Amino acid sequence: MTGSASTVETLRWRDGRLELVDQRALPSELRYIACDSATAVAQAIRDMVVRGAPAIGCTAAYGVALEALRLQNQAPEKFESGLNAAFAALAASRPTAINLFWALNRMRDACRGVSAPREVAATLLAEARAIHAADIEANRRMGRHGAELIRDGARVLTHCNAGALATAGHGTALGMIRSAIEAGKRVSVLANETRPFLQGARLTAWELAQDGIPVTLIADSAAGFLMSRGEIDAVIVGADRIAANGDAANKIGTYPLAVLAQRHRIPFYVVAPLSTIDLKIARGADIPIEERAADEITGFGGVRWAPQGIAARNPVFDVTPAELLTALITEAGVIAAPDGAKIAKLAKPA
Amino acid sequence: MTGSASTVETLRWRDGRLELVDQRALPSELRYIACDSATAVAQAIRDMVVRGAPAIGCTAAYGVALEALRLQNQAPEKFESGLNAAFAALAASRPTAINLFWALNRMRDACRGVSAPREVAATLLAEARAIHAADIEANRRMGRHGAELIRDGARVLTHCNAGALATAGHGTALGMIRSAIEAGKRVSVLANETRPFLQGARLTAWELAQDGIPVTLIADSAAGFLMSRGEIDAVIVGADRIAANGDAANKIGTYPLAVLAQRHRIPFYVVAPLSTIDLKIARGADIPIEERAADEITGFGGVRWAPQGIAARNPVFDVTPAELLTALITEAGVIAAPDGAKIAKLAKPA
Question: What is the ipTM metric for this complex?
Answer without folding.
Answer: 0.95
